[in-house]
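Structure representation.

___
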Amino acid sequence: MPIGLLIPADSNLPLLEYEWQRLGLEKHVVVDQKDGASIHLYLDAAAQAWMPEFDTLNLAATLSLSVSSNEDDLLKEVWLTLLFSPLRLEFPSADELLSSVNIRKNIAINAARVCLNFHTTAVERPNDCWRYSEDTGFVLVPSSPLIESLKKACQPKLGGVLYSFSCYRASEYVILLSIAEEAHRCHPELLQRLQEQWETKAIASRRFHEVFMNEIGTVEEPLPMHYYVPGDRVWFRNPDEPSEEATGYEGSWVVYLGGGLFSNFWKRDQPFTVLTKCIEIYHWRSSTYMDVDGEMQMDESKVEQLVAQTLADQKACAKIYELMHRMRDPMDVYAEGGCMDATRETVKFVTATHGDLIKALNEL
């Protein structure tokens, strides 16, 4: 059977068909209802040929999609890559599938707008809408709307204040903002529940992953190395054990923006490719130093210098890329693996009918 997506047989299929027609994709979507219990959605052979061996990185270039400036082009890439999923993804309804696509679009757009200062320990946010304590983390000042407050913290206007974040926390804010925007459209109760949660206690780190995210693929059965859907949260691992001891440099959390590009939360006008991300992480091993307190730190200026030198040297670039462009080893293993991850992280179901998130929030 071809791969792709499954929805129940009683789903509102016309809702999806209208969207495919609007985007000009309908002729490439195969709708298979043979088993009677579910509807199988996947791409025809012509569209599958656009992504050989599940490599989605060149899809936008192949179809001349302007995903960074045209929202419908971004939606096209989301739909095409999802419908070509190497693992069959099941959705409880057409509405839930549409919300998942919308959230992915939101994540890609919001991640591209983020611009922050990288810091693993600093605690700062706009003080007119955020307050901090060790017990609660950053929570909202009363009457501060969640969506606007998240944007103020991580999407500064040109010349505005850049607040300090780790890359993981930045990814959480992007995902939370994107969920809240879709909840505003389709599930106001969820938006209110998120508002209440962030007025009392932030959900962060491992708990954020557990409440909000699903992980697709495993180290044992990895996704194809270049299979990415816009809106994926992706981890590039640092495979060098000594430099991994520098806090915040165990790896790098990014968002796939579409068009072969990954978010750069620190320089939003310089998104990463797989190549540039591999080269950057490689040079972390040559750029550490010990501060006056005996803590390992990273010299970012040196990293930038070494990256520029490597990118200007074709042979050196190819050699480092070959070393890094490999599936990562399992955690706590440092053998021959590179920095490429086996899994992707996606958001749980959000609609009122199938809201995994409401249940997870209520169980906290």
Summary: Residues 218-342 form one domain. The longest strand covers residues 251-258. The chain has three domains: 5-84, 92-105+114-212, 218-342.
